[in-house]
Specification:
The structure holds 3 protein chains of 3 kinds.
Chain A lengths: L1 H23 L12 H34 L16 H22 L1 H12 L7 E8 L2 E6 L4 E5 L5 H4 L17 E4 L4 E7 L4 E5 L4 E5 L5 E5 L5 E7 L11 E7 L1 H21 L6 H20 L35 H7 L15 H12 L12 H7 L1
Parallel strand pairs in A: 1-5, 4-10
Antiparallel strand pairs in A: 1-2, 2-3, 5-8, 6-7, 6-9, 9-10
Chain B lengths: L21 H20 L5 H28 L5 H41 L1 H5 L29 H24 L3 H33 L6 H33 L9 H26 L1
Helix pairs in contact in B: 1-2, 3-7, 3-8, 5-6, 5-8, 6-7, 7-8
Chain C lengths: L1 H5 L12 H6 L3 H29 L10 H36 L7 H9 L1 H16 L17 H4 L2 H30 L12 H32 L13 H35 L6 H15 L14 H13 L1 H15 L8 H23 L2 H7 L3 H31 L5 H28 L13 H30 L36
Helix pairs in contact in C: 3-4, 3-5, 3-18, 4-6, 4-8, 4-10, 4-16, 5-8, 6-8, 8-9, 9-10, 9-11, 10-11, 10-13, 10-14, 10-16, 11-13, 13-14, 14-16, 14-17, 16-17, 17-18
Classes of the chains: A alpha+beta, B mainly alpha, C mainly alpha.
The structure holds heme-A (2 copies), dinuclear copper ion and copper (II) ion.
Chain lengths: 389, 290, 530
């Protein structure tokens, strides 16, 4: 706190001194470089409109300032008495701004806007492929329905950087473990939904911002013109870690994209196969920790203590320390496995059966039952989860 | 603009009441009621007690404040000028109530015309669906809501419509009698209105019981259940308020209050009653019938 | 005081003294004073909250608070500033000035008026209490959804949401009572001869505000009631599983929320012509045009709400409709701007503090309005939405428009209220510090938004660091400059040069014919307007 105050004062001073220099520095004063047709359109519209309103601003306030300089009491100006337009000329001057604004609103600004809207909303014509995006607290799940590839993308900036315990990397807060990969030049129809609250998928360089609404589907589209890595963020307040929910897209030439897709498919097949065998406890615990650190820490915290009154502790939780199935193998309602699989309505605890594989679910549950001081000692096998689906 | 103090349009001074502690206490009561309710909903033990305390304070103030107003009215403090203020006030209060119901009618419109069809239409729109088999037909409790039977229009609701419409007639009868200084008919008309109001409420209570026990129609029954109970529930609440106010007016009439010239309280309540009536007609058509 | 009612005209300054005077008062001036004092206090409360936020945003990384607490601060900041600072300040003006301006003995429904005020402190307590409760381990703090309560985040939220819901209910009752009172007063208590088209523009501004409040506050009340039942009683208004829709909440909220921004500014727009004409020594230009513009703004404001959520994915015709209807609001506003400038044109201007604030208001609110115009553009809004560009837009409207407008009014009327002149030197310092630091705070936010910084984030990527640092420095200067304002008011209440009845040499209107300060009961005998 004390160092913060000191730093604050020092940097404030620095900032004030540096103000004039900033204006010259190489700085982003406008939208970042557009890489889709929509983004180019939007930038053009934005630039035009900014010019128009700047012109309006300058003209209107130039008149006002002229008046303030000329018609001052201190210069002995005698006040006029008029209270409204009189005669044709005055009416003309009074109505002119109105007419100009009418023209600007509905013609100059309106027509390009309508064109842009129609283009923006046309997700279906000549779409080459579909990408399904599911927002969830606080990560994005991406799915390529045509090829069955599906994965979760979480922020990869270490927590130490956020708490200032480590130096911040170049892409601080804008980096993920599994970026989406998309082919350059293809029209990608993006379907959006969410599992919990509203999120908004936004990549500034795509000119695309669309809400992911729980229980509904929404659409938008991108056609990336240039290979590269594009970064964005969730733009709708979605709870605690709303600020830590980046979007990263790798745009690559099509062959590279296809190769990547094949690799992902192979990985998925291997993972699916691994669910059929019986896992040892050590394997489950190791895998479980991996899953926990990605999927569960943001709420239940690394030590399993949760956050009081918001996210329950798993350490010592009655659910993690009691049976989850009846003697004849039926799932007990509101048990540990039930909670993780199906979540709890109207709370942040979502149904993870839609997101995680059998192995991951079995592993993370096993991990929780035998960690943080919980000592159930039992194991949950992937096959058991599979049977519950 | 010029001013002359000599001439005034009104022959008397506008009545500015004496300082009063009631508004302050009423706010305190509302605070306690709200606080108690919040605590109760979140499972804190003192909640209900705080609520009771709040409600008690509010009831105390209502008696005191209205008692005072009635005394002032009977004492002749209110004349045509003040009366007009009250009338304007009542009109705009009712206007705000209209907008409150508009919010719920808006919600009904929205779920029925927009969201439920959209949920049923996903394949056509997006090529995939989150809810296989859901068609989006109304009445609906949504893709994952429980089974239920919607409420028919031509049983109790139709009777209730008749009841409320007749009660509209009986208040008008009472009003007519008041204007003619016919106290007997005034009292009869009012009594009949109150009676009809309470019978209406009785029927509605029965209807709710029926819905919960036999139709599976509950607050939790998706979009239909939510809009059905919130609309009819808030309406029922307003009927209750209206009936209580009418009862008070009836008692005052029996005591000989009001005359053909000055009877703002009577008229204000009668307007309120007509408003409740009109809302019911909308409910009957939009919730039960169509 | 029972004699007063039986012997009309015998009103004396006879009322309980001490605290009881304020708890029980039915006097419009006392109530106005309470509203204004409350507003000033809450302005500082809301300001302190956001200064904490700005401090957190000074540098990348989390230094002062956790994200949960950050989210609580921004939402409560907004609710406090809007509902407990700006709206009560405007209602305070109405209470103090309407009866003086229209020659009325008091507000039409004085007891209701007192109730309207005394509902505010409980509501403010409900809003902020969860912060304190959390310290004792009860609940997880205040509402953390921003001021917009969007479902389903608010369905998921903790006890703070329930507190906010009831705070909104109580604030709503207060606003409705206040509005009814103002409408009735204007309709029924005008001095004889004061026709509607002779009504001071301030009264017209408030009249439209009051209608808007009556039309929209109940819808907000309905929306948060549905939220409450979704949270605790199993309904599915905002849940797709039951056929509801989260977007329904947004429609209901913004049906209130958009008119709300005009509710906040119409009283100020009503005030401007008075100030401009006074200090230009010239009659108001285009009285009739301004009245019709107010009416047009009132009507248009309730049919444009969906421009706040263009990105939820609406059908194309809806997008186009909401875009064009939103843009049309610029037309009546252009009329207002034109009239303001034409009122100054060829006058004999002098630049006392109220005039400075009025001019600052016009320029900075002009920027808010013009950026609002581009926000209305659906295509460009896909970039601006939920970015700091919007935050900058609405602070130009809410602070430079709303708060600076209120400050204009305070400086303009303070001598009338207290009977003393405020310090012109301090006033000018306050103005210049405010304007400069305001721009230092919020101008960089336009560029942050363009560069892609989302709003409501407690931490940000490195490329946003410089602008955020500047903004924070600006915010602190801005905040501390407001202490000058409070001090100036305090000094003026305590004493100082006596103010004339006609405080400003060419001010017009009934209010200037009364002594400064006016007697406890003003216009016992109504003046007649010829
Ligand atoms: C007092 C507050 C206030 C006011 C007056 C306004 C005024 C306007 N606002 Fe603003 N707005 C807000 C407060 C306000 N706004 C807030 C709080 C939000 C964000 C809420 C949230 O999400 O939390 C918001 C957000 C907001 C959005 C949503 C942005 C988004 O989230 O994506 C939009 C979009 O259309 C918008 C548009 C407008 C428009 C068109 C006006 C118009 O009324 C402006 C009209 C004025 C002019 C056009 C200027 C007039 C003309 C001249 C200067 C003279 C020029 C002319 C001649 C004489 C020729 N506003
Ligand atoms: C009338 C409305 C109003 C007003 C006046 C303000 C005033 C200010 N606002 Fe506010 N703001 C909103 C309405 C308003 N705001 C709204 C609606 C939002 C959106 C919230 C949401 O997203 O839901 C918002 C959000 C918002 C954000 C975005 C947060 C985010 O998205 O993450 C920021 C960031 O800079 C900000 C800054 C400021 C600042 C610096 C001021 C300054 O003007 C404040 C000036 C400071 C003071 C007045 C404090 C003075 C106090 C002291 C100096 C201490 C003195 C000590 C004692 C007296 C003991 N505001
Ligand atoms: Cu997800 Cu914000
Ligand atoms: Cu708006």
């Amino acid at each position: 706190m004390k160092t913060f105050v000191r730093q604050f004062l020092r940097q404030s001073l620095w900032t004030l001194l540096a103000l004039p220099a900033l204006a010259r520095a190489d700085y982003s004063w406008n939208f970042p470089e557009p890489v889709t047709p929509i983004a180019r359109d939007t930038l053009k519209i934005h630039n035009e409109f900014m010019l128009i309103i700047t012109a309006l601003f300058v003209v209107v306030f130039a008149i006002m300032i002229y008046s303030m300089v000329k018609h001052r009491k201190s210069t002995g100006h005698q006040p006029a008495k008029f209270t409204g337009p009189k005669g044709g000329l005055q009416w003309f001057w009074a109505l002119l701004p109105f007419a100009i604004l009418l023209f600007i609103d509905f013609v100059l600004m309106g027509i390009p806007a309508v064109h842009a809207i129609i283009e923006m909303e046309d997700t279906k014509t000549k779409a080459d492929m579909v990408l399904k995006v599911t927002g969830m607290q606080w990560k994005w799940q991406y799915e390529y329905p045509e090829s069955g590839v599906k994965f979760v993308s979480t922020m990869s900036t270490p927590r130490e950087q956020i708490s200032n315990a480590a130096a911040k990397g170049e892409n601080y807060l804008l980096e993920v473990d599994n970026p989406v990969v998309l082919p350059v030049g293809k029209k990608v129809r993006v379907l959006l939904t969410s599992t919990d609250v509203i999120h908004t998928w936004w990549v500034p360089q795509f000119g695309v911002k669309r809400d992911a609404i729980p229980g509904f589907l929404r659409e938008t589209w991108v056609q990336i013109e240039k290979p590269g890595t594009y970064r964005g963020q969730c733009a709708e307040l979605c709870g605690k870690d709303h600020g830590f929910m980046p979007v990263v897209v790798h745009a690559v030439p099509e062959p590279e994209y296809l190769a990547w897709l094949d690799k992902k498919k192979a990985e998925a097949a291997a993972a699916a196969g691994s669910g059929d065998r019986t896992w040892s406890k050590d394997e489950l615990m190791a895998k479980g920790k991996e899953v926990y650190d990605k999927q569960c820490v943001s709420c239940h915290q690394a030590n399993g203590q949760g956050i009081p009154n918001a996210f329950p502790a798993l350490a010592g939780s009655p659910l993690c320390n009691s049976e989850w199935q009846t003697k004849d193998g039926k799932l007990i309602k509101d048990s540990h496995v039930d909670r993780v699989l199906h979540g709890k309505a109207n709370t942040a605890m979502q149904a993870f059966k839609n997101t995680l594989s059998d192995v991951e679910l079995a592993a993370v549950i096993t991990f929780e039952r035998n960690n943080f001081g919980n000592t159930m000692g039992d194991m949950v096998q992937p096959a058991q989860i599979k049977a519950l689906r | 603009m010029t001013t002359s103090a000599a001439q005034t349009a009104h022959s008397h001074h506008y009545f500015v009441p004496q300082p009063s502690i009631y508004p302050f206490i009423l706010s305190g009561g509302m605070f306690l009621l709200a606080l108690g309710f919040i605590l109760k909903m979140n499972g804190f033990a003192p909640g209900p007690w705080v609520m009771i305390a709040g409600a008690a304070v509010i009831i105390y103030v209502l008696f005191g404040w209205f008692g005072k107003v009635i005394a002032e009215s009977q004492g002749g403090d209110y004349r045509a000028w003040e009366d007009k203020s009250f009338r304007y006030g009542m009109i705009w209060f009712i206007a705000s109530e209209v907008m409150f119901f508009a919010a719920f009618f808006g919600a009904l419109y929205y779920v029925r015309i927009i969201s439920v069809p959209e949920l049923g239409n996903m394949v056509a729109e997006h090529g995939v669906t989150l809810y296989p088999g859901f068609t989006g037909a109304w009445p609906s409790s949504g893709p994952k809501g429980p089974e239920f039977t919607p409420m028919g229009a031509w049983g109790i609701p139709a009777i209730n419509t008749a009841l409320l419409l007749s009660s509209g007639v009986t208040v008008t009868w009472a009003h007519w009698a008041l204007l003619k200084n016919n106290r007997l008919h005034l009292n009869l008309g009012l009594a009949a209105t109150v009676l009809l109001g309470f019978i209406f409420l009785g029927f509605q209570a029965y209807e709710y019981y029926h819905a919960y026990t036999e139709l599976g129609l509950t607050l939790g029954a998706g979009a239909y259940g939510a809009t059905f109970f919130m609309l009819t529930g808030f309406h029922g609440f307003h009927v209750t308020l209206g009936a209580i106010m009418l009862t008070v007016i009836l008692l005052r009439c029996l005591k000989g209050h009001f005359d053909s010239e000055r009877h703002f309280a009577f008229e204000g309540v009668a307007w309120y009653w007509h408003f409740v009536d009109v809302v019911w007609l909308l409910l009957f058509v939009l919730v039960y019938w169509l | 005081m029972s004699v007063a009612t039986t012997h009309p005209g015998e009103h004396h300054e006879h009322h309980p003294s001490g605290i009881l005077r304020w708890l029980t008062t039915t006097n419009h001036k006392d109530i106005g004073t309470m509203y204004l004092t409350f507003a000033l206090i809450m302005f500082f409360v809301g300001g302190i909250m956001i200064l904490a936020v700005r401090a957190e945003l000074f540098q990348p990384g989390l230094q002062l608070m956790q994200p949960e607490f950050f989210n609580q601060l921004i939402g409560v900041h907004a609710l406090v500033m809007i509902f407990a600072a700006l709206m009560p300040a405007a209602t305070g003006f109405a209470n103090w000035m309407l009866p003086l301006m229209i020659g009325a003995p008091d507000m039409a429904l004085p007891r209701l008026n007192n109730w309207g005020f005394w509902l505010l402190p409980p509501a403010a307590i409900l809003l902020t209490l969860p912060f304190t409760l959390a310290l004792f381990g009860i609940g997880d703090g205040a509402i953390a959804t921003g001021w917009t309560f969007y479902a389903p985040l608010s369905v998921q939220g903790g006890i703070g949401v329930d507190f906010a819901i009831f705070a909104v209910h109580i604030l709503g009752v207060s606003s409705i009572m206040g509005s009814i009172n103002i409408i009735v007063t204007i309709f029924n208590l005008r001095a004889p001869g004061m026709t509607m088209m002779k009504l001071p523009l301030f009264a017209w501004g408030w009249l439209i505000t009051a209608f808007l409040l009556i039309a929209t506050i109940p819808v907000l009340a309905g929306a948060v009631t549905m939220l409450l039942t979704d949270r605790h009683f199993g309904t599915h208004f905002f849940n797709a599983a039951g056929g509801g829709d989260p977007i329904l909440f947004q429609h209901l909220f913004w049906f209130f929320g958009h008119p709300e921004v005009y509710i906040l500014l119409l009283p100020v727009w009503g005030l401007m012509p008075h100030v401009l004409s006074t200090f230009s020594r010239k009659p108001t230009y285009g009285y009739t045009a301004q009245v019709y513009s107010f009416i047009a703004i009132g009507v248009l404001s309730v049919i444009v709400w969906a421009h706040h959520f263009f990105t939820v994915g609406m059908p194309v015709p809806a997008l186009i409709y909401f875009m064009f209807s939103t843009m049309s609001i610029s037309l009546p506003l252009a009329v207002l701007f034109f009239c303001w400038i034409a009122t100054m044109w060829r006058g004999a201007m002098s630049f006392e503090t109220p005039m400075l604030f009025a001019l600052g208001f016009i320029v900075l609110f002009g920027m808010a309005g013009l950026t609002g115009l581009v926000l209305a553009d659906v295509a460009a809004d896909a970039q601006y939405h939920h970015s700091y560009f919007v935050v900058a837009h609405f602070h130009y409207a809410l602070f430079a428009g709303g708060i600076m407008g209120v400050m204009t009014g305070v400086y303009y009327w303070l001598p009338k209220w207290t009977g003393h002149m405020y310090s012109e030197t301090l006033g000018k310092w306050h103005f210049w510090l405010t304007v400069v630091s305001f721009n230092l705070t919020f101008m960089p936010q336009f560029f942050l938004g363009l560069a892609g910084m989302p709003r409501r984030i407690p931490d940000y990527a490195l490329q946003f660091a410089e602008f955020n640092a500047i903004s924070t420095v600006g915010a602190f200067i801005l905040g501390f400059s407001q202490l000058l304002f409070a001090y100036n008011i305090w000094r003026c209440v305590k004493g100082g040069e006596k103010a004339k009845d006609q405080v400003w040499e060419s001010a017009e209107g009934l209010e200037w014919q009364l002594p400064s300060p006016p007697p406890y009961h003003s216009w016992e005998t109504q003046p007649e307007i010829k």
